Amino acid sequence: MHYLKYIAKVGVIFEIKSRVVKNISGFPAVAGKNAKLLILGSMPSEASLQKQQYYGHQRNAFWSIMMTLFCDQPNHSVLPYTQRKRLLIENNIAVWDVLKNCHRDGSLDTAIKMDSIKTNNFLQFFLSHPDIKKVFFNGLKAEAIYIKHVLSTLNKQFSDLEYCRLPSTSPAHASITLKQKTAIWKKEIKDYNNFLIKE
Prior knowledge:
- By secondary structure, this protein is of the alpha/beta class.
- The protein has helices at 46-51, 62-71, 81-90, 122-128, 140-149, 178-198; strands at residues 2-9, 12-19, 22-25, 37-41, 93-97, 99-104, 112-119, 134-138, 162-166.
- The chain has a single domain, classed as Uracil-DNA Glycosylase, subunit E, CATH 3.40.470.10.
- It is 32% helix and 27% strand.
- The strands form three sheets. A four-stranded parallel β-sheet has the order 5-4-8-9. A three-stranded antiparallel β-sheet has the order 3-6-7, with helices on one face.
- The termini are far apart.
C-alpha cells in the first residue's frame, strides 16, 4: 500500500512516497520421503504468495526449466501446479526456501530486511529426509543466507552435504538467457539425478 507523508522543513514542503513493509511467511517444503536433492530459494515473491505456488511469477523460469528437463515440454502451463509438484517428487527433487518468514518491501531479495529474518528448521528437515545428499541454491541470496544463518546450526552428521549455486530463475536475473540458464541447470540437476539413479 502506498501513502503520502508531508514533512515541513525550513519552510519547504517535501513529498515523500512510502511503502508498507510486509511481514511474509513462506510455504511448506515440496518433498517426497525419497528426495535426494534439495533446491532452495530465499522467499516466495509477491506473485507466488498471491497464487500460493512456488515460483508463481509468470516470467520466472523455474517451472519451464523443470518441464524441459523432465518432460521435454517447456510450457509449464500445460500442467496444473499439483502435477508439477508431483513431477518434482517423482524425480526425487525437493523444493523449499531458506527463510520461514521475514519483512520485505516488494519481491526483490535486496528488499528483505535482514534483521527480521527467521530461517526454516533445516536440522529437522534433513533428519526427516536422510537421502538428500546435495543442496542447490536458486540464486546468490539463498546461498548467502543459508551459509550465514543455517550452516552452523547443522549437526556434524550433515557435514558431507554437497552444495552448488545455480543462476537465479528470477526474471530480475537477466544477465544470461533462458537457454543458458536451462543448460546450466540441466548439467547440475539432471546429470546429478541420473548419477543417483544409476548408483
